[in-house]
Every structure is written in C-alpha cells, then in structure tokens.
Amino acid sequence: MIKLLRAVFCVIAGFAILVACAVVDYRTSQGAWRDGFAYIGPAPDLDGLIPFVEYQPAVGSQPSRSSMQRILFIDFDDADWQSIVAEGEVPDPDKPEALAGILCNEDEIEVDGEMFRVTGRVHRTASGFSTTYLIPLNDRQFDAADDDEPKGMLGSRTRTGFYDREARQHASDTGFEWPEDVEPLFVHDAVPMPTGVPYAVMVGLALTLYGAAVLQWQTVLWLHRISGAFNGLVTASHEHSRLFRFVLLLNYSTFFYVMLAGVLLPLANLAASQWVFEIFSEGALKELGQAYMDGNIPLAAWETFRNNFVVQTFLLSSLASTIIPLFGVGKTMLSLVVVGFAMAPVWSGTIDALTFHWVTIALELQAYIIVSFGICVYTLEAWRAIVTLMRGYDGEAPSTSRGFRWGFEVLASATMYACLALAIAAVYEAVTLIALSA
After folding, report:
1. Dist CA 64 CA 198 (whole Å)
2. Which of 53, 201, 298, 318 is the most buried (most CB within 10 A)?
3. Is 232 within 8 Å of 412 (Cβ atoms)?
4. Which residues pair with 88 in a beta bridge?
5. Which secondary-structure segment (H or E) carries 71?
6. Is 354 exposed, middle or buried (0-12, 13-18, 19+ CB in 10 A)?
C-alpha cells in the first residue's frame, strides 16, 4: 500500500510540476513577435509582410557556424528594430552590423568577405529568429526588383522570402489559401523556453514516469494474482530480479540522459526535430502522420498500434531477437536515444503536449523496456540450454535454466504485456491528440 501511495504521489507531483512549467512558459513567452513566421517564395496577398533575403554562404566558408543558423537581410523599419532588440543596440544600416538570435554564438559573421559585427541580441520570444542573424536590408547590399521584391546582388546563394508577423492568425483563417510554391523557412517557432524551465520539466516528467512505471507493474502483479496472467514475465522478474532492475534503470536513465543532452544542445535538437517531422510528413510514417492530420481517430489509433507494436516491438524486437541474440535490446536503446533527444523540452509550447502526452510516454516506454527484459531472459536461458547440451547434461536442469521453452515463455509473456499497453497507448494518443487539435 505504501508503494502504491508513493507512486500516486509521484504522478501527482510530477503532473503539477509540468502544469506549473506550462503556465510559466506561456506567461513569459508572449510578445509582439510571438506569432511570426518566415517563408521562402512569393508573398501571398496579405498586408504587413516584411521582405527579406536569406544569404547562404558557400560550402565550407564558415565551418564554425551551425547549419541550423541563418543569415537574413530583412527590411525592418525603425520601430520593428527597436521592438525586436532584447539587449545591445540596433544595427546601423550604413555599417556592417547585425543582430543575433538568442542561440547564435558568434560575435561577428562573414558575408562574401565582409565581416558584420554583432551589436545586440534578438528578443527570446521573436518567433523564427532564435537561430538567425539579422542584417538591415538596403541598397548597399541589394537592389529592389521591379515588382518591389528584393533581388540579391550575391548571385545564386540567396533566396527571397517574407516574414509574416501574424502567421498564426493567417494559418487559422479558413478562407485563406497559401500559394503552392511557398515553403516555411523554419520547422516550428523555435522560441526557447525561459532559462531553467527545461530542467524543471525533466524533473516533473521523471516523477510522473517513475510513478506510472510502479503503478503499471503493480497492475501486472495484481492481474497475475487473480488470473495467472503474465506468469512467465512475473516469475522471471523474481528469478532475475537484479537483471530486471538493471534493465529498467539502464533504459530509463538513457532516455533522460539523452534528453538532457538535447536541452544542452538546442541546435542539434532543432535538427532532430526537423528530421522527425519529415519522417511523419514525407517519410516511412507518412500514413501515420496523415491519419492524425485527417482527424481519423480509429485509423490513427490503428496506425499507431501497427507501428509501435506490430513493427517496432513484435517484428523488430521480439521476433528478431530469436534469430539475432539481443537485437531488440540494442534496437530499443537506439530508439530511446532518438526519442529522448528529439523530445527534449527546449522550445516554448512543447510542455502543453507533455501535460497529457506523458501518459502515452509512460505506457510506451514501459512496454518497450519490459520486452527488452524478456529478450534478455530468453537469450540467457537459451545460452544456458546450449551450454547444458554441449556438456551432455543428463539430469534435471536447475529451475533457473529451463532452456528454450522457458525463455520463449518469458519473451511471449513480455510481448503480450506490450501488446496490451501499446494498444491502450495508441487509443489514448489518437483520441487526445486529435481532440485537442480540433
């Protein structure tokens, strides 16, 4: 009973921390530039668009600058420059000066052999500019084209576009249509959270996942007592208790260590987020992403379950590990590294999803880790059986060495648990994500 109460307390405390962080993030991340977005391509028929030219330096010319950082020559007026500066001074249009985003780390940048000195920093809540160097757009660098769009003087290494300060509102207007050849310059807002908030989010998430893991395992033990369900898994957790705790600790700690790395490396996290976005929009999980975009809850739940259990768990973990020893263990660790890094709470607004998505995370992580434990036991028991056969053992095998049959029973039991947990997670994720999006 004390263990259950402690687990419930951890879930409640962790959830409270997540909600508090979401409130702090929301209240400190609003500003005049919060709803803006930068696009490449021709400007749609909207008022107030700000033209810019993106400069793309030659390959290898600036090895110290991250590929996620950009240089924009932008046509701000005096009021725009004054409102977007958080510290320092507005760059002088008649001098080689620039304004740097909050995640830009250079004191000066080179544009075709000319050095531009950074005079100040862009406000943290300026959407899309966290990883951008801003330089005043004027006749000294660029001429205006006949249609009043900027025309680059730097050859093919420029792209023209526009910045829409009210992009969020325009995107929600049902009667407005974007031109087909317009593409976003950034994957998302890329507005960093206030300092310290990401670490508090990780603490809250750790508490909720710990409490949820205990509650899930106690549920498994309860089902085993009343019905004998998951007998192989429960018995193996007692016989291999040290291995059980080690697998849980190793996987959960890996998840949070790489999440911490994502917080400390925001530009790399931004690149990982872009990669994940492309997988769901254009890559292997395009059908899954489209089901969520269409708002089809049954299809989204099935596609989620099919990917998470049928493909990732049953085929690539459990079944593959019966052929290649411990293959699923390595695959799960790699998945946790990718997911943990991409899910790092770096950007403003991501906590909102965590306040309800933590349930999905808790169910899925526990399922994957339990299967990894089953794979470890299967491999261990299979190895012991092989050694026994090689030695010509004629007597009754010890209780901890029951051979392939016992190892397979444990793996099958762990896989059945994952099937149940991932089915619940798929339905919950489809309902909550689609309902909240609507």
Report:
1. 26
2. 201
3. yes
4. 120
5. strand 70-74
6. buried
The answer to whether residues 392 and 271 touch, using CB atoms and an 8 Å cutoff, is no
To which H or E segment does residue 85 belong?
strand 85-88
Tokens of 102: 């909050």
Match 């019966």 to its residue by tokens.
Answer: 322
Compute, in degrees rounded to 10, the torsion defined by CA atoms 199, 202, 208, 209.
-150
- DSSP states of 350-408: HHHHHHHHHHHHHHHHHHHHHHHHHHHHHHHHHHHHHHHHHHT--SPPPTT--HHHHHH
* Residues ≥6 apart with Cβ < 8 Å to 375: 317, 318, 321, 326, 328, 329, 411, 414
Q: Could you list the pLDDT tens digit for every one of the 438 residues in the chain?
A: 788 899 999 999 999 999 999 999 888 877 767 777 777 777 777 777 888 888 866 544 443 445 567 888 888 888 889 888 988 999 998 888 999 988 888 888 888 778 899 999 998 888 778 888 999 987 555 543 334 444 444 444 677 788 887 776 766 665 556 666 666 555 445 788 888 999 999 999 999 999 999 999 999 999 999 999 999 999 999 999 999 999 999 999 999 999 999 999 988 888 888 788 778 777 778 788 888 888 889 999 999 999 999 999 999 999 999 999 999 999 999 999 999 999 999 988 888 888 888 999 999 999 999 999 999 999 998 888 787 777 765 555 444 445 778 899 999 999 999 999 999 999 999 999 888 765
Q: Which two tokens stand for residue 100?
A: 């740097």
Show the tokens assigned to 274.
Answer: 């872009």
Q: Answer for the pair 262, 396: CB distance below 8 angstroms, yes or no.
A: no
Q: Are 120 and 88 in contact (CB under 8 A)?
A: yes
Strands 150-151 and 132-136, sheet pairing:
unpaired
Angle formed at CA 178 by CA 430 and CA 82, multiple of 5 degrees: 100
- Residue 252 CB-half CA count within 13 A: 24
Scanning 265-349, the segments in alpha helix (DSSP H) are: 266-281, 286-294, 297-305, 320-321, 327-342
The model's pTM = 0.83
Cβ atoms of 205 and 19 closer than 8 Å = no
Q: How many CA within 13 A on the CB side of residue 317?
A: 32
Burial 178-197 (b: 16+ CB within 10 A, else e): eeeeeeebbbbbbbbbbeeb
Tell which residue, 343, 342, 313, has the closest CA to residue 416: 313
